[in-house]
Amino acid sequence: MSVIEPVEKTYTPIFDKDWDSWRKKHPQRSSKDILQELGQIIKAYEQKYRMTTEEFIPRYANGEFELDDSYADYELAHWQGSYEAYQRLSQTEK
Amino acid sequence: MGYIETLIYLRVNYFLNELSNYLSHLLVDSPFEVADIELSTWTHQFYHRFYFQNGWSLIIYEKYIFAEYQLKISRYHYALLHPQNEPHLSFDNCPHHRNLFTFPHHKHFYPKHNHSPMIFSGEIADAFEEIKWIMENL
After folding, report:
1. Where are the domains of chain A?
2. Which has the closest alpha carbon to B72: B122, B19, B107, B106?
3. What ipTM describes this predicted complex?
4. Do B17 and A69 touch (CB under 8 A)?
């Protein structure tokens, strides 16, 4: 009887070298830099969808946009996730 | 990097490797922005658009939480877009389609009102495999 060896799936990190060389060239970003970047992402979505984030968050949570093709659901998820990250990092800043 | 950040780094590394295995021969050969991964480790989410040589594109979005000592994907969207920027197919885990046995994982063809949501395993490699088939059979 032959024994079937389990195939171990391995993967090679594809950007380890990129990461190291990039890190040498770029200073570590602070949470302030990241907050600024998140603020820009959130603002861009507010402008695109003509809605404030305060209005968007509860409507998104209620699933209002799920079947509406005029909203790109991946962008709405990114918007919501960016807002959540913004809130979390703001708390850390304090 | 902290523990959560390292896990996010490894997750992103994993699916970029899968992406490379399935689709590198079809994608535009552009260097990946390491800055995006650094942003992911801060924000606990990944968002990037990859372009195919024929003008189509793939958006990968994942949001992470750390629970029970593990990194979990709390929300994801993998969307294949036409060159005109319109979605053709997307995979996600929004908890809306409880009738599917793969709930919350499912996929949509567009326009959504013409196609019922369909089952999806939730594995990103399965999404890449289907996208590969579509791109090779256009």
Report:
1. 29-93
2. B122
3. 0.89
4. no
Whole-number Å distance between alpha carbons of B105 and B123: 9
Sheet with B87-92, strands from edge to edge, namely B45-51, B57-67, B70-81, B87-92, B106-109, B118-119
B31, B37, B47: residue with CB nearest A78: B47
The contacts of residue A48 (CB under 8 Å, 6+ apart) are A75
Residue A65, φ and ψ in degrees, nearest 5: -100, 0
DSSP-based three-state secondary structure for B40: helix
B67–chain A Cβ distance below 8 A for any pair:
no
Phi-psi region of A50 (alpha: psi -120 to 50; beta: other; left: phi over 0): left
Q: Residue B60 in contact with residue B78, Cβ under 8 Å? A: yes
Is B13 a residue whose pLDDT tops 90?
no
Most confident of A19-28, A60-69, B19-28, B55-64: B55-64
Cis peptide preceding B111, ω within 30 of 0: yes
CB-based contact A86:A38 (threshold 8 Å): yes
User: What separation in angstroms does the CA of B8 have from each of A69, B2, B99?
Assistant: 30, 10, 31
